Amino acid sequence: MAKTSDYLALDLGAESGRGLLGKFDGERIVLEEVHRFPNGPVRVFDTLHWDLPRLFEEIKVALRKAATANPGLDGVGVDTWGVDFGLVGRGDTLLSNPVHYRDARTDGMFEAAFRRVPRERIYEITGLQFLPFNTLYQLLAMRLSDSPILEMAETLLMMPDLFAWLLTGRRTGERTDASTTQLLDPRSGTWSDELCRDLNLPRQILPELIDPGTVIGPIRRPLAEELGIPQGLSVLAPATHDTASAVAAVPVVRPRGVVDVVGPPDWCYLSSGTWSLLGVEVHQPVITADTLKYNFTNEGGVVGTTRLLKNIMGLWLVQECRRAWARTGREVSYEELATLAEAARPFAALVDPDDESFLSPGDMPARLAAYCTRTGQTPPQDEGAFARCALESLALKYRWTIERLERILGTTIRTIHVVGGGTRNALLCQFTADACGRPVHAGPVEATAVGNVLLQAMGRGRIGSLAEAREIVARSFPVIVYEPRNTAVWDEAAARFASLVPA
After folding, report:
1. Which domains does the chain have, with CATH numbers?
2. Which residues are catalytic?
3. Which pLDDT belongs to residue 261?
4. What is the pTM of this model?
5. How many Cβ atoms from other residues are within 10 Å of residue 434's Cβ?
Protein backbone atom coordinates (compact mmCIF):
# COMPACT_ATOMS: atom_id res chain seq x y z
CA MET A 1 0.00 0.00 0.00
CA ALA A 2 1.31 3.46 -0.93
CA LYS A 3 2.40 5.75 1.87
CA THR A 4 -0.17 8.39 2.81
CA SER A 5 1.04 11.98 2.51
CA ASP A 6 -0.52 14.72 4.61
CA TYR A 7 -0.72 18.34 3.42
CA LEU A 8 -2.26 21.32 5.20
CA ALA A 9 -4.15 23.70 2.91
CA LEU A 10 -4.68 27.14 4.42
CA ASP A 11 -7.43 28.67 2.28
CA LEU A 12 -8.57 32.22 3.05
CA GLY A 13 -11.89 32.98 1.37
CA ALA A 14 -13.96 36.14 1.46
CA GLU A 15 -16.31 34.94 4.22
CA SER A 16 -14.12 32.45 6.07
CA GLY A 17 -10.66 31.01 6.32
CA ARG A 18 -10.03 27.33 6.92
CA GLY A 19 -7.26 24.90 7.53
CA LEU A 20 -8.02 21.66 5.73
CA LEU A 21 -5.84 18.57 5.99
CA GLY A 22 -5.51 16.65 2.75
CA LYS A 23 -4.60 12.97 3.12
CA PHE A 24 -3.37 11.46 -0.15
CA ASP A 25 -2.79 7.70 -0.42
CA GLY A 26 -1.72 7.67 -4.07
CA GLU A 27 -5.26 7.07 -5.35
CA ARG A 28 -7.59 9.41 -3.48
CA ILE A 29 -7.60 12.55 -1.38
CA VAL A 30 -9.59 12.83 1.82
CA LEU A 31 -10.11 16.28 3.32
CA GLU A 32 -10.46 16.86 7.05
CA GLU A 33 -11.35 20.26 8.46
CA VAL A 34 -8.80 21.25 11.09
CA HIS A 35 -9.82 24.81 11.86
CA ARG A 36 -12.31 27.34 10.47
CA PHE A 37 -12.50 31.04 11.25
CA PRO A 38 -14.24 34.19 9.97
CA ASN A 39 -12.48 36.41 7.46
CA GLY A 40 -13.76 39.91 6.86
CA PRO A 41 -12.23 43.36 6.49
CA VAL A 42 -11.95 45.87 9.34
CA ARG A 43 -12.37 49.62 8.99
CA VAL A 44 -9.84 51.90 10.69
CA PHE A 45 -10.77 55.56 10.28
CA ASP A 46 -11.78 55.71 6.59
CA THR A 47 -9.73 52.77 5.31
CA LEU A 48 -10.78 49.15 4.90
CA HIS A 49 -7.99 46.76 5.97
CA TRP A 50 -7.24 43.08 6.14
CA ASP A 51 -7.44 41.83 9.74
CA LEU A 52 -3.91 40.52 9.34
CA PRO A 53 -2.74 39.97 12.95
CA ARG A 54 -5.87 38.01 13.84
CA LEU A 55 -5.71 35.97 10.61
CA PHE A 56 -2.09 35.04 11.29
CA GLU A 57 -3.06 33.91 14.80
CA GLU A 58 -5.80 31.74 13.25
CA ILE A 59 -3.27 30.27 10.83
CA LYS A 60 -1.03 29.41 13.77
CA VAL A 61 -3.94 27.64 15.47
CA ALA A 62 -4.56 25.59 12.31
CA LEU A 63 -0.85 24.77 12.05
CA ARG A 64 -0.62 23.66 15.67
CA LYS A 65 -3.70 21.45 15.40
CA ALA A 66 -2.62 19.85 12.12
CA ALA A 67 1.02 19.26 13.06
CA THR A 68 0.15 17.93 16.53
CA ALA A 69 -2.29 15.38 15.12
CA ASN A 70 -0.05 14.59 12.12
CA PRO A 71 3.61 14.92 13.15
CA GLY A 72 4.73 13.67 9.72
CA LEU A 73 3.04 16.54 7.87
CA ASP A 74 4.55 16.78 4.38
CA GLY A 75 3.77 20.40 3.62
CA VAL A 76 1.78 23.57 4.21
CA GLY A 77 0.38 25.84 1.50
CA VAL A 78 -1.48 29.16 1.66
CA ASP A 79 -3.91 30.52 -0.91
CA THR A 80 -6.29 33.45 -1.06
CA TRP A 81 -7.66 35.92 -3.59
CA GLY A 82 -5.50 38.12 -5.80
CA VAL A 83 -4.76 41.86 -6.16
CA ASP A 84 -4.14 42.69 -2.46
CA PHE A 85 -0.64 43.00 -1.01
CA GLY A 86 1.54 44.04 1.91
CA LEU A 87 4.75 46.07 1.86
CA VAL A 88 7.87 44.92 3.69
CA GLY A 89 10.69 47.28 4.62
CA ARG A 90 14.22 47.06 5.94
CA GLY A 91 14.82 44.53 8.67
CA ASP A 92 11.76 42.43 7.76
CA THR A 93 9.39 45.16 8.92
CA LEU A 94 5.77 44.99 7.83
CA LEU A 95 5.16 48.65 7.01
CA SER A 96 1.38 48.73 7.44
CA ASN A 97 -1.69 46.57 7.74
CA PRO A 98 -2.64 45.62 4.13
CA VAL A 99 -5.57 47.48 2.57
CA HIS A 100 -8.60 45.48 1.40
CA TYR A 101 -9.52 45.65 -2.29
CA ARG A 102 -13.05 46.89 -1.54
CA ASP A 103 -11.58 50.08 -0.06
CA ALA A 104 -12.40 53.27 -1.95
CA ARG A 105 -8.79 54.43 -2.45
CA THR A 106 -8.80 53.36 -6.11
CA ASP A 107 -11.73 55.60 -7.03
CA GLY A 108 -10.69 57.62 -10.08
CA MET A 109 -7.55 55.58 -10.72
CA PHE A 110 -8.68 54.28 -14.13
CA GLU A 111 -8.70 57.83 -15.44
CA ALA A 112 -5.39 58.66 -13.75
CA ALA A 113 -3.73 55.58 -15.27
CA PHE A 114 -5.14 56.09 -18.76
CA ARG A 115 -3.83 59.66 -18.84
CA ARG A 116 -0.36 58.19 -18.51
CA VAL A 117 -0.72 54.94 -20.49
CA PRO A 118 -3.59 54.31 -22.91
CA ARG A 119 -6.09 51.67 -21.81
CA GLU A 120 -5.38 49.67 -24.98
CA ARG A 121 -1.65 49.61 -24.25
CA ILE A 122 -2.15 48.40 -20.68
CA TYR A 123 -4.31 45.56 -22.01
CA GLU A 124 -1.89 44.73 -24.82
CA ILE A 125 0.91 44.30 -22.27
CA THR A 126 -1.03 42.45 -19.56
CA GLY A 127 -4.16 40.93 -21.12
CA LEU A 128 -5.87 41.52 -17.78
CA GLN A 129 -9.48 42.48 -17.13
CA PHE A 130 -9.94 46.08 -16.04
CA LEU A 131 -11.10 45.98 -12.43
CA PRO A 132 -10.77 49.13 -10.34
CA PHE A 133 -9.07 47.30 -7.49
CA ASN A 134 -6.27 45.63 -9.47
CA THR A 135 -2.88 46.00 -7.81
CA LEU A 136 -1.75 48.47 -10.45
CA TYR A 137 -4.46 50.97 -9.41
CA GLN A 138 -3.88 50.38 -5.70
CA LEU A 139 -0.19 51.21 -6.18
CA LEU A 140 -1.00 54.21 -8.36
CA ALA A 141 -3.32 55.53 -5.64
CA MET A 142 -0.45 55.25 -3.16
CA ARG A 143 1.94 57.00 -5.54
CA LEU A 144 -0.43 59.88 -6.26
CA SER A 145 -1.11 60.39 -2.54
CA ASP A 146 2.65 60.49 -1.84
CA SER A 147 2.41 57.47 0.44
CA PRO A 148 5.44 57.42 2.75
CA ILE A 149 5.36 53.63 3.11
CA LEU A 150 5.69 53.19 -0.66
CA GLU A 151 8.96 55.11 -0.44
CA MET A 152 10.15 52.90 2.45
CA ALA A 153 9.19 49.56 0.88
CA GLU A 154 11.81 47.00 -0.09
CA THR A 155 9.41 44.30 -1.26
CA LEU A 156 5.79 44.01 -2.32
CA LEU A 157 4.28 40.68 -1.34
CA MET A 158 0.87 39.54 -2.55
CA MET A 159 -1.26 38.32 0.34
CA PRO A 160 -0.54 34.57 0.09
CA ASP A 161 3.15 35.41 -0.35
CA LEU A 162 2.93 37.68 2.68
CA PHE A 163 1.59 34.85 4.83
CA ALA A 164 4.33 32.56 3.46
CA TRP A 165 6.90 35.20 4.46
CA LEU A 166 5.44 35.40 7.96
CA LEU A 167 5.80 31.62 8.18
CA THR A 168 9.25 31.20 6.59
CA GLY A 169 10.98 34.57 6.40
CA ARG A 170 11.46 34.19 2.62
CA ARG A 171 10.13 36.83 0.20
CA THR A 172 8.84 35.38 -3.09
CA GLY A 173 6.07 36.00 -5.60
CA GLU A 174 4.09 32.99 -6.82
CA ARG A 175 3.14 33.38 -10.47
CA THR A 176 -0.61 32.73 -10.43
CA ASP A 177 -1.23 35.43 -7.85
CA ALA A 178 1.26 37.79 -9.49
CA SER A 179 -0.77 37.45 -12.68
CA THR A 180 -3.71 39.29 -11.04
CA THR A 181 -1.75 42.52 -10.50
CA GLN A 182 -2.03 43.96 -14.05
CA LEU A 183 1.73 44.47 -13.85
CA LEU A 184 2.76 41.09 -15.29
CA ASP A 185 3.32 40.35 -18.98
CA PRO A 186 1.65 36.92 -19.43
CA ARG A 187 3.57 36.19 -22.64
CA SER A 188 7.03 36.58 -21.14
CA GLY A 189 6.02 35.72 -17.56
CA THR A 190 7.94 38.75 -16.27
CA TRP A 191 7.06 42.03 -14.59
CA SER A 192 6.44 44.89 -17.03
CA ASP A 193 9.26 47.40 -16.84
CA GLU A 194 7.34 49.63 -19.27
CA LEU A 195 4.24 49.94 -17.10
CA CYS A 196 6.28 50.53 -13.95
CA ARG A 197 8.28 53.25 -15.72
CA ASP A 198 5.37 55.03 -17.39
CA LEU A 199 3.17 54.93 -14.26
CA ASN A 200 6.09 55.85 -11.97
CA LEU A 201 5.68 52.68 -9.89
CA PRO A 202 8.66 51.20 -8.02
CA ARG A 203 9.77 48.23 -10.15
CA GLN A 204 12.47 47.29 -7.64
CA ILE A 205 9.94 46.21 -4.99
CA LEU A 206 8.36 43.50 -7.15
CA PRO A 207 9.55 40.09 -5.92
CA GLU A 208 11.31 37.15 -7.47
CA LEU A 209 8.75 34.92 -9.19
CA ILE A 210 8.33 31.22 -8.44
CA ASP A 211 6.11 28.50 -9.92
CA PRO A 212 3.30 26.59 -8.18
CA GLY A 213 4.70 23.55 -6.41
CA THR A 214 7.93 25.29 -5.35
CA VAL A 215 9.22 24.62 -1.83
CA ILE A 216 9.50 28.08 -0.26
CA GLY A 217 11.28 26.96 2.89
CA PRO A 218 10.88 25.60 6.41
CA ILE A 219 8.75 27.22 9.11
CA ARG A 220 10.91 29.72 10.99
CA ARG A 221 12.54 28.07 13.99
CA PRO A 222 11.14 30.55 16.58
CA LEU A 223 7.64 30.03 15.17
CA ALA A 224 7.99 26.24 15.23
CA GLU A 225 9.14 26.46 18.85
CA GLU A 226 6.25 28.79 19.75
CA LEU A 227 3.75 26.35 18.28
CA GLY A 228 5.46 23.22 19.54
CA ILE A 229 5.59 21.68 16.07
CA PRO A 230 8.39 19.72 14.38
CA GLN A 231 11.41 21.63 13.09
CA GLY A 232 11.83 21.53 9.33
CA LEU A 233 8.15 21.52 8.35
CA SER A 234 8.12 23.09 4.88
CA VAL A 235 5.86 25.67 3.31
CA LEU A 236 5.18 25.05 -0.38
CA ALA A 237 3.60 27.38 -2.91
CA PRO A 238 0.40 25.86 -4.26
CA ALA A 239 -1.33 27.90 -6.93
CA THR A 240 -1.61 30.65 -4.35
CA HIS A 241 -4.37 32.47 -6.21
CA ASP A 242 -7.44 30.64 -4.98
CA THR A 243 -9.09 30.43 -8.42
CA ALA A 244 -5.97 28.87 -9.94
CA SER A 245 -6.02 26.17 -7.26
CA ALA A 246 -9.77 25.65 -7.76
CA VAL A 247 -9.37 25.25 -11.53
CA ALA A 248 -6.57 22.70 -11.00
CA ALA A 249 -9.14 20.65 -9.05
CA VAL A 250 -11.80 20.61 -11.79
CA PRO A 251 -12.55 16.87 -12.22
CA VAL A 252 -12.33 16.73 -16.02
CA VAL A 253 -11.38 13.23 -17.09
CA ARG A 254 -10.74 12.26 -20.70
CA PRO A 255 -11.39 8.71 -21.95
CA ARG A 256 -8.41 6.37 -21.82
CA GLY A 257 -6.05 7.04 -24.70
CA VAL A 258 -7.44 10.53 -25.35
CA VAL A 259 -5.27 13.48 -24.42
CA ASP A 260 -6.09 17.17 -24.45
CA VAL A 261 -4.96 18.75 -27.69
CA VAL A 262 -3.60 22.24 -28.09
CA GLY A 263 -6.90 23.63 -29.30
CA PRO A 264 -10.12 25.27 -28.16
CA PRO A 265 -11.57 23.60 -25.05
CA ASP A 266 -15.09 22.14 -25.05
CA TRP A 267 -15.68 22.70 -21.32
CA CYS A 268 -15.56 25.68 -19.04
CA TYR A 269 -15.13 26.12 -15.31
CA LEU A 270 -17.15 28.27 -12.94
CA SER A 271 -15.50 28.83 -9.58
CA SER A 272 -18.55 29.92 -7.63
CA GLY A 273 -18.50 31.79 -4.35
CA THR A 274 -18.40 35.43 -3.31
CA TRP A 275 -17.06 36.00 -6.81
CA SER A 276 -17.88 33.93 -9.87
CA LEU A 277 -14.86 33.19 -12.06
CA LEU A 278 -16.01 31.76 -15.37
CA GLY A 279 -13.60 30.79 -18.10
CA VAL A 280 -11.60 28.21 -19.97
CA GLU A 281 -8.13 26.77 -19.72
CA VAL A 282 -5.92 27.59 -22.70
CA HIS A 283 -2.29 26.97 -23.54
CA GLN A 284 -1.30 30.58 -24.18
CA PRO A 285 -2.73 34.04 -23.49
CA VAL A 286 -5.55 35.24 -25.74
CA ILE A 287 -5.18 39.01 -26.14
CA THR A 288 -7.36 40.32 -28.95
CA ALA A 289 -9.70 43.17 -29.79
CA ASP A 290 -12.63 41.02 -28.65
CA THR A 291 -11.10 40.03 -25.29
CA LEU A 292 -10.44 43.74 -24.70
CA LYS A 293 -13.97 44.69 -25.83
CA TYR A 294 -15.61 42.17 -23.49
CA ASN A 295 -13.08 42.74 -20.70
CA PHE A 296 -11.80 39.17 -20.37
CA THR A 297 -8.71 38.41 -18.34
CA ASN A 298 -5.66 36.19 -18.87
CA GLU A 299 -4.45 34.88 -15.52
CA GLY A 300 -1.76 32.35 -14.77
CA GLY A 301 -2.75 28.73 -14.36
CA VAL A 302 -0.74 25.69 -13.33
CA VAL A 303 1.84 23.80 -15.42
CA GLY A 304 2.08 26.63 -17.94
CA THR A 305 -1.62 27.06 -18.68
CA THR A 306 -3.53 30.33 -18.89
CA ARG A 307 -6.97 30.93 -17.43
CA LEU A 308 -8.99 32.99 -19.91
CA LEU A 309 -11.91 34.12 -17.80
CA LYS A 310 -14.23 36.83 -16.61
CA ASN A 311 -14.68 37.95 -13.01
CA ILE A 312 -18.40 38.20 -12.22
CA MET A 313 -19.74 39.68 -8.99
CA GLY A 314 -21.07 36.32 -7.75
CA LEU A 315 -22.90 35.49 -4.54
CA TRP A 316 -21.66 38.75 -3.02
CA LEU A 317 -25.05 40.16 -4.04
CA VAL A 318 -26.87 37.64 -1.84
CA GLN A 319 -24.30 37.81 0.96
CA GLU A 320 -24.61 41.59 1.24
CA CYS A 321 -28.42 41.37 1.18
CA ARG A 322 -28.28 38.94 4.12
CA ARG A 323 -25.97 41.28 6.03
CA ALA A 324 -28.30 44.23 5.37
CA TRP A 325 -31.33 42.30 6.59
CA ALA A 326 -29.40 41.07 9.66
CA ARG A 327 -28.69 44.70 10.61
CA THR A 328 -32.43 45.24 10.82
CA GLY A 329 -32.90 42.15 13.00
CA ARG A 330 -34.01 39.79 10.22
CA GLU A 331 -31.66 36.78 10.12
CA VAL A 332 -32.26 34.72 6.95
CA SER A 333 -30.30 31.52 6.35
CA TYR A 334 -29.06 30.58 2.87
CA GLU A 335 -31.41 27.59 2.95
CA GLU A 336 -34.41 29.77 3.77
CA LEU A 337 -33.44 32.25 1.07
CA ALA A 338 -33.21 29.47 -1.52
CA THR A 339 -36.73 28.29 -0.60
CA LEU A 340 -38.10 31.84 -0.80
CA ALA A 341 -36.33 32.48 -4.10
CA GLU A 342 -37.69 29.30 -5.66
CA ALA A 343 -41.22 30.39 -4.77
CA ALA A 344 -40.78 33.95 -6.08
CA ARG A 345 -42.07 35.07 -9.49
CA PRO A 346 -39.59 34.23 -12.28
CA PHE A 347 -37.81 37.04 -14.17
CA ALA A 348 -39.67 39.80 -12.35
CA ALA A 349 -36.51 41.95 -12.32
CA LEU A 350 -32.99 41.47 -13.68
CA VAL A 351 -29.71 43.27 -13.04
CA ASP A 352 -26.22 43.23 -14.47
CA PRO A 353 -24.34 41.70 -11.48
CA ASP A 354 -21.21 43.63 -12.46
CA ASP A 355 -22.72 47.10 -12.23
CA GLU A 356 -20.23 49.23 -10.31
CA SER A 357 -22.90 50.25 -7.78
CA PHE A 358 -22.79 46.71 -6.33
CA LEU A 359 -19.02 46.57 -5.66
CA SER A 360 -18.54 48.10 -2.23
CA PRO A 361 -20.08 46.92 1.06
CA GLY A 362 -23.40 48.49 2.00
CA ASP A 363 -27.17 48.29 1.66
CA MET A 364 -27.40 45.84 -1.23
CA PRO A 365 -31.22 45.56 -1.31
CA ALA A 366 -31.42 49.35 -1.71
CA ARG A 367 -28.82 49.27 -4.47
CA LEU A 368 -30.60 46.46 -6.33
CA ALA A 369 -33.88 48.35 -6.04
CA ALA A 370 -32.27 51.57 -7.29
CA TYR A 371 -30.80 49.72 -10.28
CA CYS A 372 -34.23 48.31 -11.17
CA THR A 373 -35.85 51.74 -10.91
CA ARG A 374 -33.09 53.26 -13.05
CA THR A 375 -33.65 50.63 -15.75
CA GLY A 376 -37.43 50.90 -15.80
CA GLN A 377 -38.20 47.75 -13.81
CA THR A 378 -40.34 47.24 -10.71
CA PRO A 379 -37.94 46.61 -7.80
CA PRO A 380 -38.18 43.38 -5.77
CA GLN A 381 -40.38 43.71 -2.71
CA ASP A 382 -39.26 40.90 -0.37
CA GLU A 383 -36.31 38.67 0.46
CA GLY A 384 -37.28 35.88 -1.95
CA ALA A 385 -37.71 38.31 -4.84
CA PHE A 386 -34.33 39.94 -4.17
CA ALA A 387 -32.60 36.53 -3.99
CA ARG A 388 -34.30 35.30 -7.17
CA CYS A 389 -33.34 38.51 -8.98
CA ALA A 390 -29.69 37.99 -7.99
CA LEU A 391 -29.56 34.28 -8.86
CA GLU A 392 -31.37 34.58 -12.20
CA SER A 393 -29.16 37.53 -13.14
CA LEU A 394 -26.01 35.57 -12.30
CA ALA A 395 -27.15 32.61 -14.41
CA LEU A 396 -27.85 34.92 -17.35
CA LYS A 397 -24.45 36.63 -16.97
CA TYR A 398 -22.87 33.17 -17.12
CA ARG A 399 -24.70 32.52 -20.40
CA TRP A 400 -23.61 35.92 -21.76
CA THR A 401 -20.00 35.13 -20.86
CA ILE A 402 -20.00 31.63 -22.34
CA GLU A 403 -21.45 32.88 -25.62
CA ARG A 404 -18.62 35.40 -25.94
CA LEU A 405 -15.98 32.85 -25.01
CA GLU A 406 -17.28 30.60 -27.79
CA ARG A 407 -17.12 33.49 -30.25
CA ILE A 408 -13.59 34.47 -29.22
CA LEU A 409 -12.19 30.92 -29.40
CA GLY A 410 -14.32 29.49 -32.21
CA THR A 411 -15.39 26.59 -30.04
CA THR A 412 -18.52 25.06 -28.52
CA ILE A 413 -18.71 24.78 -24.74
CA ARG A 414 -20.59 21.55 -24.01
CA THR A 415 -20.18 21.21 -20.23
CA ILE A 416 -19.97 23.63 -17.32
CA HIS A 417 -17.92 22.46 -14.32
CA VAL A 418 -18.95 24.36 -11.18
CA VAL A 419 -16.62 24.15 -8.19
CA GLY A 420 -16.46 25.89 -4.83
CA GLY A 421 -18.96 26.93 -2.21
CA GLY A 422 -21.58 27.91 -4.79
CA THR A 423 -22.08 24.22 -5.59
CA ARG A 424 -24.11 24.06 -2.36
CA ASN A 425 -26.67 26.38 -3.95
CA ALA A 426 -28.70 23.85 -5.91
CA LEU A 427 -31.07 26.52 -7.19
CA LEU A 428 -28.24 28.53 -8.75
CA CYS A 429 -26.75 25.36 -10.27
CA GLN A 430 -30.11 24.48 -11.86
CA PHE A 431 -30.63 28.07 -13.04
CA THR A 432 -27.16 27.95 -14.62
CA ALA A 433 -27.95 24.73 -16.50
CA ASP A 434 -31.31 26.14 -17.62
CA ALA A 435 -30.00 29.55 -18.66
CA CYS A 436 -26.96 28.19 -20.50
CA GLY A 437 -28.66 25.13 -22.03
CA ARG A 438 -25.75 22.94 -20.95
CA PRO A 439 -25.31 20.32 -18.23
CA VAL A 440 -23.72 21.56 -15.04
CA HIS A 441 -21.35 19.23 -13.18
CA ALA A 442 -21.15 20.55 -9.61
CA GLY A 443 -18.30 19.61 -7.28
CA PRO A 444 -16.08 19.48 -5.36
CA VAL A 445 -17.19 22.05 -2.80
CA GLU A 446 -13.73 22.71 -1.32
CA ALA A 447 -12.08 22.82 -4.75
CA THR A 448 -9.56 25.49 -3.77
CA ALA A 449 -8.25 23.47 -0.83
CA VAL A 450 -8.19 20.33 -3.00
CA GLY A 451 -6.15 22.17 -5.65
CA ASN A 452 -3.85 23.50 -2.94
CA VAL A 453 -3.19 19.93 -1.76
CA LEU A 454 -2.73 18.67 -5.33
CA LEU A 455 -0.09 21.29 -6.12
CA GLN A 456 1.79 20.51 -2.91
CA ALA A 457 1.73 16.81 -3.85
CA MET A 458 2.94 17.67 -7.36
CA GLY A 459 5.74 19.74 -5.84
CA ARG A 460 6.74 16.74 -3.74
CA GLY A 461 6.69 14.46 -6.80
CA ARG A 462 3.70 12.39 -5.61
CA ILE A 463 1.57 13.39 -8.64
CA GLY A 464 3.08 13.56 -12.10
CA SER A 465 0.71 15.67 -14.20
CA LEU A 466 -2.38 17.85 -14.18
CA ALA A 467 -4.39 15.13 -15.94
CA GLU A 468 -3.43 12.66 -13.21
CA ALA A 469 -4.37 15.21 -10.54
CA ARG A 470 -7.83 15.66 -12.05
CA GLU A 471 -8.38 11.90 -12.22
CA ILE A 472 -7.60 11.78 -8.50
CA VAL A 473 -10.20 14.49 -7.83
CA ALA A 474 -12.81 12.59 -9.87
CA ARG A 475 -12.17 9.46 -7.80
CA SER A 476 -12.19 11.32 -4.51
CA PHE A 477 -15.23 13.61 -4.49
CA PRO A 478 -18.88 13.34 -5.59
CA VAL A 479 -20.19 15.40 -8.49
CA ILE A 480 -23.88 16.29 -8.98
CA VAL A 481 -25.12 16.74 -12.55
CA TYR A 482 -27.87 19.27 -13.33
CA GLU A 483 -29.44 18.83 -16.76
CA PRO A 484 -30.99 21.87 -18.52
CA ARG A 485 -34.76 22.10 -18.60
CA ASN A 486 -37.39 24.61 -19.73
CA THR A 487 -34.75 26.56 -21.66
CA ALA A 488 -37.22 28.48 -23.86
CA VAL A 489 -38.22 30.87 -21.06
CA TRP A 490 -34.54 31.53 -20.38
CA ASP A 491 -33.98 32.36 -24.06
CA GLU A 492 -36.61 35.10 -23.73
CA ALA A 493 -35.06 36.39 -20.52
CA ALA A 494 -31.58 36.39 -22.09
CA ALA A 495 -32.71 38.86 -24.75
CA ARG A 496 -34.02 41.16 -22.00
CA PHE A 497 -30.85 40.72 -19.96
CA ALA A 498 -28.56 41.58 -22.88
CA SER A 499 -30.01 45.09 -23.00
CA LEU A 500 -28.75 45.67 -19.45
CA VAL A 501 -25.13 44.75 -20.12
CA PRO A 502 -22.92 47.55 -21.52
CA ALA A 503 -21.98 46.85 -25.13
Report:
1. 5-236 (3.30.420.40), 264-313+397-487 (3.30.420.40), 316-395+489-493 (no CATH)
2. 242
3. 45
4. 0.96
5. 23
